[in-house]
Amino acid sequence: MVVPFAWFSLTEELPEGFREVAISRDGRGNYYASFSYRQPEEAKREGDVMAFDLGIKTLATGATEGGRTYHIGGFKGSRWYNNQLDRLRSKRSTCKKKYRHYLHLSKVCKHVSQKKCNKQRDSLHKASYLICPDAHL
Which of 44, 64, 71, 127 is the most buried (most CB within 10 A)? Predict the structure, then answer.
């Protein structure tokens, strides 16, 4: 197995005492570094408790101590985007690599998958705002 070698520079300072680094790349070719580190545990806060169960078909289902329940549906358009991506990949598979039509279909495929990712991210952001509106100041 050949591991690629790359130079990079960070735009922010390293967190103190980080344990692991994960390098990831998005659809546009941008690289991101994710650092994991331990934080000291805070004292337990008094107040109401809210519990959420993250799911596959529904984004989250939760309940509070007071008996109030929450049901938050997730992103609904993934089937349409998956069909579009399947259709584009099928067309692209009939083309020769590096030809104009193949490159065009690759660009369109990348654009559609990026739109799908943006819609999913927006849906998650809106759901997190529904769960905890005071945290988004």
Answer: 127
Neighbouring residues of 11: CB distance < 8 A, sequence distance ≥ 6:
none
Contact status, residue 50 vs residue 62, Cβ threshold 8 Å: yes
Interatomic CA distance for residues 21 and 35, integer angstroms: 5
How does DSSP assign the chain, residue by residue? -PPP------SSPPPTTEEEEEEEE-TTS-EEEEEEE--PPPPPPPS--EEEEE-SSEEEEEEETTS-EEEEE---THHHHHHHHHHHHHHHHTSPTTSHHHHHHHHHHHHHHHHHHHHHHHHHHHHHHHH-GGG--
pLDDT digits (tens, 9 = 90+) for 101-137: 999 999 999 999 999 989 888 888 887 787 777 665 4
